[in-house]
Each structure stands twice: as structure tokens, then as C-alpha cells.
Write a structure and sequence with these properties.
The complex is a heterodimer of chains A (about 200) and B (about 140). Chain A has five helices and seven strands, in the order βαβββαβαβαβα. Chain A is an alpha/beta fold and about 200 residues long. Chain B has about 140 residues and is mainly α. Chain B has a three-stranded antiparallel beta sheet. The chains are: A alpha/beta (about 200), B mainly alpha (about 140). At the A-B interface, strand 1, strand 2, strand 3, strand 4 and helix 5 of A face strand 2, helix 3 and helix 7 of B.
Chain lengths: ~200, ~140
């Protein structure tokens, strides 16, 4: 991974278009690790204040059960060609952040759902949301293989997560650039096939 | 001078910066939108806000909206509104993002029919991303080879 100094902050002037991919998953699943593995800049963090349904604490009369919270979002950048740049955004998967999703999902290539087989149930909420979305955002599943994970085949994970046969699923090591790039390739190839109507 | 755990806050609330607006005037503004100053020699009017000045200075070369927001330590939502004003006033230009924008930006505002499809990147962009990622996977150091 190369770290960007101030002089590397800017994009080449030849870049015409930007694309984005969302990496979603539960806390601690390795989203920022994967982003850092492919990014040409050290992952950056942006913080947004958003209104979310309150969690039953600090309820104030008249505020309709809403509270504001700060959501941190990490992202990285890959200049793919002299004309195209890709941004990879890490998104929290919890239901209460769905409002943030709506703005970010618009125009995205798709979502890569990063899962940890030691805590598969933590991925259900994210997958439910993706399947219920009206815009049919393409998604693929990447199983982040941790050193102490039990080795499951992708088909075992597919059954456990109740994925459709066409949903791509890959094993990956989020610390490794080739492995993480391959997971993004699986998602993008699927999104392209979907757009061309061949899936 | 500054202690660890220093409390970071701005002296004014975000809605003051955006003159009370929560949303930018263009719906097509996205975090990955690429911004660049139209003419580095063109100066802002005296009444321009410090955020407008800072964003224009930051975008003297090509940068995405979300990166500009991080470097300026402002929320993306605030920078979106400021960026829109600067675009509307001709100081800042955006390069087409995930979708090719209709010249003049008319399509971005009206929405038009088939809105859900226009939110998807086109085949050409998907193909460019795919080719670029494949090159990245091949060029990565430490690959089995």
C-alpha cells in the first residue's frame, strides 16, 4: 500500500469519470482492512451526523423517538486508468443506518458483503436489506477468511446464508491486495452481466 | 498547546454554513463526484463564505467531493451544498460521475422517467472498472507467479 503525501492528494487531470463500490458488513468484519488493501491512498474517514431511530435511551418528550448520531465511514481510492477512478466506501450494515445507505447506493456499481463465518448471523441484517431494496443493487458475498476461522466451502456458506444460485460468493483475505481485488472483480463482473441482461 | 483528547468543533453549526439548507440544489451531487475549479484566476465575491473559499482553493486541481470534505474537516452534506452553490455560480465544475450527465444538468434535476435505471452505472463504466481491477490484481506485488 502506498501512502499519499499532500502532493499525491489530487487525481490526474485526465480522469473523466468516477465509480464507487460499497463494502458492507458488520462491525469488525474487515471492511477497512479490505479497503486499505486495494486503495492507493491510506483509507480516509468521513463523519456524518444523522438522525436515527433512538435505541430506547435518552428519549426526550416531543422528539418522536429520534436521536442524532455520528456515523464514521471509511473509504479508499483506486485510479484504475488515466480516465477512471474508483472509490470504495465502507458502510455499517446495521438497520439503523439505512438512511445513509440510500444516498450512497445511488450510482454504485454494487455492494460487496463481507462476512465472517464465525459470526454469520451478523450478516443476515445486511443481506435482508439488499434483497429488499427496490433498486436491485447488485451484490456479491466475500467470506473474509480469518486465521482461526473454520474452513467452510463457498457452497456451505451459500446454503447457510440462503443466497440465490446466481449471487457470486468468493473466499478472500481482506489483508491481501490480489485477494481483495478479486472479490471486487467478482462483484463488478456480476454487475456488468446484470446490466447486459445475461443473468 | 493542544492537549490530547482535544474537543474538535466548529464555531458555527453546519446549517449556518449552508444558510439553513439541508440538501444541495442538484440531486445528482454524490460523494464520488469529481470537482475542479473552472478558472484558478477567478476570485470569489467579498461576501463569499470561508467554506466557499476553502472548497474552491482545495479544488484547484481535480478531487472528489468526499475527499475535499475530509481534508476540509467538514461533513459531506455541508460540502455538497457549498459545492452546488459554487457550480451554480460558475466557479466550480463537476466531471460526470457514475452516469453521464445530460449537458446542462437538466436531466439531473428533473428526474424524468425511468429514474431508477439512471441510478445505475452504464455498461461502459462497468467495463472500465472491471478492466482496471483486473490490471490491479495482476500488478499487485507478492502475487503467485
Amino acid at each position: 500500500m502506498t501512502l499519499a503525501g499532500a502532493h499525491e492528494r489530487y487525481l490526474p487531470g485526465t480522469v473523466r469519470r468516477s465509480a464507487k463500490i460499497l463494502v458492507v458488513g458488520s462491525f469488525g468484519v474487515g471492511k477497512t482492512t479490505l479497503i486499505g488493501a486495494v486503495s492507493e491512498i491510506a483509507p480516509l474517514r468521513t463523519e456524518e451526523t444523522m438522525t436515527v431511530a433512538s435505541m430506547g435511551i435518552d428519549d426526550l418528550a416531543g422528539l418522536e423517538g429520534k436521536t442524532t448520531t455520528t456515523v464514521a465511514m471509511d473509504f479508499g481510492r483506486v485510479t484504475l486508468s488515466p480516465h477512471t477512478v474508483l472509490y470504495v466506501f465502507g458502510m455499517p450494515g446495521q438497520r439503523r443506518f439505512w438512511d445513509l445507505w440510500d444516498g450512497l447506493a445511488e450510482g454504485a456499481v454494487g455492494a460487496l458483503v463481507l462476512v465472517d463465518t464465525r459470526r454469520l448471523e451478523a450478516s443476515f441484517e445486511v443481506l435482508d436489506q439488499l434483497e429488499l431494496r427496490k433498486d436491485n443493487l447488485p451484490f456479491a458475498v466475500a467470506v473474509n477468511v480469518f486465521p482461526d476461522s473454520h474452513q467452510h466451502s463457498t457452497e456451505e456458506v451459500r446454503r447457510a446464508l440462503d443466497l440465490l444460485p446466481e449471487t457470486p460468493i468468493v473466499l478472500c483475505d481482506a489483508r491481501d491486495r490480489i485477494s481483495s481485488a478479486s472479490a471486487l472483480i467478482a462483484l463488478t463482473a456480476y454487475a456488468l452481466a446484470t446490466e447486459e441482461g445475461s443473468v | 498547546m493542544s492537549s490530547s483528547g482535544e474537543y474538535h468543533d466548529r464555531p458555527v453549526r453546519p446549517y449556518v454554513v449552508t444558510k439553513g439548507r439541508a440538501r444541495p440544489s442538484r440531486t445528482a451531487i454524490r460523494p464520488e463526484m469529481l470537482l475542479i475549479a473552472t478558472d484558478p484566476g477567478k476570485t470569489l465575491p467579498v461576501w463569499a463564505s470561508s467554506e466557499e473559499r476553502a472548497l474552491l482553493r482545495m479544488c484547484r486541481r481535480l478531487l472528489s467531493l468526499v475527499e475535499a470534505a475530509v481534508y476540509l474537516q467538514l461533513p459531506v452534506s455541508v460540502v455538497s451544498v457549498v459545492a452546488c452553490d459554487l457550480i451554480d455560480e460558475g466557479f466550480l465544475a463537476m466531471r460526470a460521475s457514475s452516469e453521464e450527465l445530460v449537458p446542462g444538468g437538466a436531466g439531473a434535476r428533473s428526474g424524468g422517467p425511468g429514474g431508477s435505471r439512471s441510478a445505475r452505472p452504464d455498461v461502459q463504466l462497468l467495463q472500465d472498472v472491471l478492466n482496471g481491477l483486473r490490471k490491479l490484481a495482476e500488478a499487485a506485488p507478492g502475487g503467485a507467479g
